[in-house]
Design goal:
By secondary structure, this protein is of the alpha/beta class. Helices cover about 65% and strands about 10% of the residues. The protein has 16 helices and five strands. Strands 2-1-3-4-5 form a five-stranded parallel sheet, sandwiched between helices. Keywords: DNA-binding, Phosphoprotein, Transcription, Transcription regulation.
Length: about 350
């Protein structure tokens, strides 16, 4: 299954693309949604998607600048550009970054399907690198303070696996190790740890020194996290959930919710998933669907009116999400509940 991240600041376009990917199905599934480049970059470092679909013009960090940042960090991904601007300079810049799929709005489903297929084929050679990043992310996300020995052992095994990969050259291995380092140090900064700068990771015949550098960072991360987890994040996450239940009609974003709880985007995303058991997007959709059920039971509103009342940008998107959640379209749900 290939995870897709959709970055688009216009809600109705973003949800339209998400809906089309849902209809296309097959090997493609939406891993997350972002309404600006900053949110997208934070989510990339949490879900490590295979494919990024991004608008060119977005606030805070535009699509091409986002791709440039991803390329600078050499994150294994492929890209699809969306744009309402039919200008050659955008295509030129996109080509320089290795983007071969450039779709003009409004996007047609057959065009998107083909772009996803092409991107999936290009991604296949990067799949092993992506899986290593996902594995490391899972180790961090599922950290158990009662079993730190296992955490260290699995982490060191993963570092060793990277160092011994026969298919890849030194620079590729080095980049993966630096992504590990970047992930750990970013998490430490989120926890406001006074991190002293260390030597840059470099591959040499002294592979043990590389592992020792990363192990030292992990040890600091574990020590800080054990203390940090004792702080009261429960109230912050409850505050976020309460806010969603009141404001579910709005186009709520990671940026907005992180600001509400005084956290970074990546930190909020991680903690919300731990607290709620699902991503922010999934939680918001669950709240909206529950409200839609209530309206279907207690009012005579039409489907398009309920879609608008519950924060869905289009009736078709509302119907698809409702059917995925309940196993039936809204009309059948209303009929059954009324009988």
């Amino acid at each position: 299954m290939l995870q897709v991240l959709v970055a688009e600041d216009e809600q109705w376009i973003r949800q339209s693309v998400v809906e089309m990917i849902g209809r296309i199905g097959g090997d493609f599934t939406v891993a997350g949604e972002a309404r600006n480049g900053e949110e997208a970059w934070a989510l990339i470092q949490e879900v490590w998607p295979a494919i990024l679909i991004t608008d060119v013009m977005m606030p805070k960090l535009d699509g091409l600048a986002l791709i440039e940042k991803i390329m600078a960090h050499r994150v294994p991904m492929t890209f699809i550009i969306l744009s309402g601007y039919d200008k050659f300079e955008y295509a030129q810049r996109a080509i320089r970054f290795g983007v071969s799929e450039y779709l003009l709005k409004p996007v047609q489903m057959d065009q998107l399907h083909e772009a996803l297929r092409q991107s999936g084929e290009r991604f296949s050679e990067k799949g092993e690198l992506n899986q290593i990043l996902v594995t490391f992310q899972n180790l961090l996300d599922r950290f158990d303070p009662e079993d730190t020995a296992r955490f260290y052992r699995k982490s060191l095994e993963l570092f060793e696996r990277v160092l011994l990969m026969p298919r890849y050259d030194g620079p590729t291995k080095l980049n993966l190790l630096r992504l590990f380092e970047h992930k750990i140090t970013a998490s430490l900064r989120d926890m406001q740890s006074p991190l002293a700068p260390g030597p840059a990771i470099e591959l040499s015949s002294e592979d043990d020194s590389v592992k020792q550098r990363l192990q030292g960072l992990l040890e600091e991360w574990v020590l800080r996290k054990n203390d940090y987890d004792k702080e009261n994040h429960h109230l912050s996450m409850k505050k976020a959930c309460d806010y969603i239940h009141v404001n579910y009609r709005k186009d709520l974003s990671l940026t907005q919710m992180a600001k509400l709880t005084n956290m970074s985007i990546s930190h909020f995303s991680l903690w919300f998933k731990k607290y709620a058991g699902k991503t922010l997007v999934q939680y918001i959709q669950e709240v909206r669907i529950n409200k839609a059920k209530e309206l279907l039971r207690d009012t005579s509103l039409k489907a398009y009116e309920i879609a608008e009342e519950t924060g869905f940008s289009t009736q078709s998107y509302f119907v698809r999400v409702f059917k995925n959640a309940t196993g039936m379209p809204p009309s059948e749900y209303k009929k059954r509940i009324g009988s």
